[in-house]
Specification:
Layout: H1 8-13, H2 17-20, E1 23-31, E2 35-38, H3 42-46, H4 51-58, E3 62-65, H5 72-87, E4 94-100, H6 111-123, E5 132-136, H7 142-156, E6 162-171, E7 184-194, E8 199-209, E9 215-216, E10 225-226, H8 228-252, E11 270-273, H9 278-293, H10 298-306, H11 318-334, H12 336-345, H13 353-356, H14 363-373, E12 382-389, E13 393-401, H15 413-418, E14 421-422, H16 425-432, E15 446-452, E16 458-463
Parallel strand pairs: 2-14, 4-5, 4-6, 11-12
Antiparallel strand pairs: 1-7, 1-8, 2-3, 6-7, 8-13, 9-10, 12-13, 15-16
This protein binds coenzyme A.
């Protein structure tokens, strides 16, 4: 492996103690609605946006759109059903279902109870009654907090059963807003158990939280209030804080022990970030690598390519310093040295997101699915996850790929996305505004929202 890519595999292989106590992700299933809107044709023309801005500046090509019979709960039930079928699970095998969402369908009732109700239409009434469920809300970081929590429950070993974490969301912004082309929808279900086949969590969590107004959805509002540019900055600040905390803990516990000239990311093969839109992971990795490389051997190469970073003590005018520093950050992000690391460690995680859009709390796990579908992860490699939730919070944690990873069957996700139905801008707008009452695709072998009764209770069915 070349020096820029790090060499953690060798370092990891000497530490078998972590592997023996492993708890982590054994398998995953992904559900994406079967309708999509292309962003480069009619959409970009009607919105008067240069298609290059969408495909290069933002990084999106297609947006997944839920059909009239779908909501966040049906999508969650679909990904869970697929996970159960893939892994031959029975309801009695599952002790807990922790569900992360910011697309709640009820202010009090846990979405997981609706999901269990749907699954019982397939597995039999009462089949999930011994399984507990709770909804985690913390914008896009909810599912990651659910994963952290459930992994401790599994590790405690007081219950033989496995845990399931579900992410499900419909990312929705007002029509014609700058958030519109970053929408998407989908659900990811993760099977969490001991001796996982895919990746063992290393149980170090670097956290950063502060009160922010970057993105929020007051009670009763169908779309979020988003201060877009501010949300980018909050994301970067929180990610840098959480990464510093992760690196310090990993060093203190001896998990990552950089030698002279090395840095934390030398010990990491794959960096996966929350993906509100693919370009954001490039911004995130530039911020993290610039921070991590500054005191390492990499910095010589950076300076050789783009010069010396501005330092505050050389400036009488603080504003001028900030302008120059921002310019330097842009040069860093465009540098060959950074781009090489970005292509090697980060870029592939956004492959599915380009075709799906934002799925909020599941998007970082859609990133994991991208790597798995592309067969990019080898046993013993370290994956470092950087989750972000507006409001705001970031959590950085790592996992190590397990020997069983190559035995987990592909989900055929890229092929499945090609089989979706393209819809027109008008069809999309009707669905977006809740005016498209008829399903565009006739439901088959799937859960549907059949009706909402006069009390607001939602009735779901399984259509064969
Ligand atoms: N061709 C190629 N690239 C173009 C372009 C063109 N014609 N026009 C613009 N771009 C580039 C810009 O230069 C910029 O890239 P850069 O950062 O490398 O300079 C990129 O496209 C984004 O364009 P910009 O105009 O800065 O952003 P925007 O107004 O489209 O807003 C968001 C982007 C993300 C702020 C907006 O979509 C949003 O509010 N999304 C919802 C909130 C969100 O996702 N937040 C993220 C953190 S959680």
């Amino acid at each position: 492996m070349s020096s820029i890519l790090g060499n953690s595999s060798k370092k990891i292989s000497s530490d078998n103690s972590l592997l023996s106590a492993a708890v982590g992700i054994d398998d995953m299933a992904v559900y994406i609605p079967s309708l999509y809107l292309p962003l480069t044709g009619e959409f970009s023309r009607q919105r008067d946006i240069d298609p290059e801005k969408l495909t290069r500046g933002i990084g999106v090509e297609r947006m997944a759109v839920p059909d009239a019979h779908e909501d966040a709960a049906t999508m969650a039930a679909m990904s869970l059903l697929e996970l159960m079928r893939r892994c031959d699970l029975q309801p009695g095998d599952i002790g807990k279902i922790y569900l992360g969402t910011e697309s709640a369908v009820d202010e009090a009732k846990a979405m997981g109870t609706y999901v269990i109700g749907m699954l019982e239409r397939v597995y039999g009434s009462g089949s999930f009654q011994g399984c507990s469920t709770v909804e985690f809300k913390s914008a896009c970081i909810g599912t990651t907090l659910a994963l952290e929590s459930i992994s401790y429950w599994v590790a405690a070993g007081e219950d033989e059963r496995i845990g399931v974490v579900i992410a499900t969301d419909v990312a929705r912004y007002p029509l014609h807003s700058p958030g519109e082309y970053t929408q998407g929808a989908g659900s990811v279900s993760l099977l969490v158990k001991r001796d996982p086949r895919i990746a063992a969590l290393e149980q170090i969590y670097g956290c950063f939280t502060r009160d922010e107004n970057d993105f929020f959805r007051p009670l009763g509002c169908a779309t979020a209030t988003v201060n877009g540019k501010h949300s980018n900055q909050c994301y970067l600040d929180a990610m840098q804080g959480a990464f510093a905390s992760y690196a310090a803990q990993a060093a203190q516990k001896g998990l990552i022990a950089p030698k002279r000239g090395e840095c934390t990311t030398d010990w990491i093969e794959h960096l996966l970030f929350h993906i509100p839109y693919p370009r954001m992971v490039e911004y995130a990795s530039a911020a993290i690598l610039r921070q991590d490389w500054r005191n390492s051997r990499h910095w010589k190469n950076v300076e050789a390519e783009i010069g010396v970073e501005p330092e505050p003590q050389n400036y009488a005018d603080l504003e001028k310093y900030q302008v120059d520093l921002a310019g330097y950050a842009r040069s860093f992000a465009r540098s060959r040295y950074f781009q090489q690391a970005y292509n090697a460690k980060v870029k592939d995680s956004a492959a599915l997101s380009r075709q799906v859009g934002n799925i909020y709390t599941g998007s970082i796990y859609l990133g994991l699915a991208s790597l798995l579908e592309l067969r990019k992860v080898q046993a013993k490699e370290r994956l470092c996850f950087g989750a972000y939730g507006s409001g705001c919070s970031a959590l950085v944690f790592s996992a190590r790929a397990m020997p069983g990873i190559s035995s987990v069957p592909s989900r055929g996700l890229f092929e499945r996305l090609e089989r979706r139905r393209e819809i027109s801008l008008q069809e999309y707008e009707l669905l977006h505004e809740g005016e498209g009452k008829e399903s565009l695709n006739r439901p088959s072998e799937e859960f549907v929202l059949a009706r909402i009764d006069h009390q607001g209770y939602r009735h779901y069915e399984y259509v064969r």
